């Protein structure tokens, strides 16, 4: 799978996986307190977020993306915390569209600020958005996301994104037992079918150490597919590209597709080509890594481009992560980084 567009120094990790995707967290802040991600007891008024000086600047992010692209990255996803809280995010998008080798530039957002920013993001060159939404019931939405932002504002954000052409729109729904595994599941699927959005149901994961995860709270992918199938028959679709995380299904009646991300019950570490860059410039080679590698220190310390690339390559080349495959083993009980810190 060597690609001539990239530096010759490029190499796969210890398990033969190439570096292809980079998720960039642009802020650790969020205006929601989703129970499974940033529970208010932990992320309360006294929680200290990163000061601005700690965050990578847009210039620093762009420089790193150039180095990552030379090391094989083709897809960039901006995330957070809530990425639209980062001021002038459209400027960063415009800068990243100039980087050679990046084929796809996407954004994951809770959509609370999307209606206001969708046009500027599209004009800057953003390819598409994924919106996280766990319920279409206004009260349940408010409870799950623990926010005063009304559901109507999220729906408006999605509609505006579609209007300006940030398509195809994907909706990410974390499914948690007792939270939204009842009517919500089918309502969200129906919403996707009606509007042509691909809904992707995600198994609730044990990211970080604050969400009190228990295996009993996971609704297995199989159960989700069976529920959908009983209502609107579905059939599997081949994945688009190696490393695609969602299992894809098409509705037999032709009303689009639905995806399932079975991170817990059917892990996909074997094909994981994804790295993550935290808001303060640490490189994480796994969503469940306990620690990152400080690239900001290199950038701010005056490293040249070749040095940045060498460092990225060295870190990736040593990678042996496969947390989801080992989830229940003893070695895995260590402290992990929070999802809001490195993005989903
Ligand atoms: N704030 C943005 C949003 O919610 O779309 C971007 C960051 S958020 C951390 C990225 C994704 O991670 C969201 O789709 C969210 O639902 C998902 N997520 C957070 N905690 C999770 C968990 N414990 N299990 C599965 N997915 C989770
Ligand atoms: Fe915020 Fe996204 Fe985490 Fe919800 S999932 S608390 S919106 S970062
Ligand atoms: Fe990739 Fe780590 Fe997730 Fe496995 S657990 S798929 S290695 S991010």
UniProtKB/TrEMBL annotation:
Chain sites annotated for binding [4Fe-4S] cluster 1: 30, 34, 37
Name listed for the protein in its UniProt record: GTP 3',8-cyclase
Protein source organism: Saccharopolyspora phatthalungensis
The keyword S-adenosyl-L-methionine belongs to this UniProt entry's keyword annotation: yes
Reported function: Catalyzes the cyclization of GTP to (8S)-3',8-cyclo-7,8-dihydroguanosine 5'-triphosphate.
Keyword Iron-sulfur found: yes
Ranges where the Radical SAM core domain occurs: 14-235
Entries under NCBIfam families matching the protein: moaA
Any one GO molecular function term: GTP binding
Enzyme class, broadest EC rank: lyase
A Pfam family this chain is assigned to: Radical_SAM
Source domain of life: Bacteria
Pathway: Cofactor biosynthesis; molybdopterin biosynthesis
Coiled coil start-end: none
């Amino acid at each position: 799978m060597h690609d001539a567009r990239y530096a010759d120094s490029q190499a796969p990790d210890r398990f033969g996986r190439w570096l292809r995707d980079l998720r960039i967290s642009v802020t650790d802040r969020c205006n929601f307190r989703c129970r499974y991600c940033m529970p208010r007891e932990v992320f309360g008024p006294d929680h200290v977020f990163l000061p601005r000086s700690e965050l990578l600047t847009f210039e620093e992010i762009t420089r790193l993306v150039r180095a990552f692209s030379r090391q094989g990255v083709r897809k960039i996803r901006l995330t957070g915390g809530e990425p639209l809280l980062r001021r002038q995010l459209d400027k960063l998008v415009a800068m990243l569209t100039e980087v050679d080798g990046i084929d796809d530039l996407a954004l994951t957002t809770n959509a609370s600020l999307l209606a206001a920013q969708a046009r500027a993001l599209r004009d800057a060159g953003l390819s598409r958005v994924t919106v996280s939404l766990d319920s279409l019931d206004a009260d349940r939405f408010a409870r799950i996301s623990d926010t005063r932002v009304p559901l109507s504002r999220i729906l408006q954000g999605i509609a505006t994104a579609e209007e300006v052409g940030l398509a195809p729109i994907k909706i990410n729904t974390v499914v948690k037992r007792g939270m939204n595994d009842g009517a919500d599941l089918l309502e969200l699927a129906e919403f996707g079918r009606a509007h042509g959005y691909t809904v992707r149901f995600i198994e609730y994961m044990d990211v970080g150490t604050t969400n009190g995860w228990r295996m009993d709270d996971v609704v297995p992918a199989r159960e989700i597919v069976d529920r959908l199938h009983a209502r609107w028959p579905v059939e599997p679709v081949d994945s688009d590209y190696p490393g695609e995380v969602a299992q894809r299904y098409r509705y037999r009646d032709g009303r689009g597709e639905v995806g399932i991300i079975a991170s817990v019950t059917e892990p996909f570490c074997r094909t994981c080509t994804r790295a993550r860059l935290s808001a303060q410039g640490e490189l994480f080679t796994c969503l469940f890594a306990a620690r990152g590698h400080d690239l900001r220190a290199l950038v701010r310390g005056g490293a040249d481009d070749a040095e940045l690339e060498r460092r990225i390559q060295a870190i990736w080349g040593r990678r042996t992560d496969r947390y989801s495959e080992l989830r229940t083993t003893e070695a895995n009980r260590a402290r992990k980084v929070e999802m809001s810190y490195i993005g989903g």
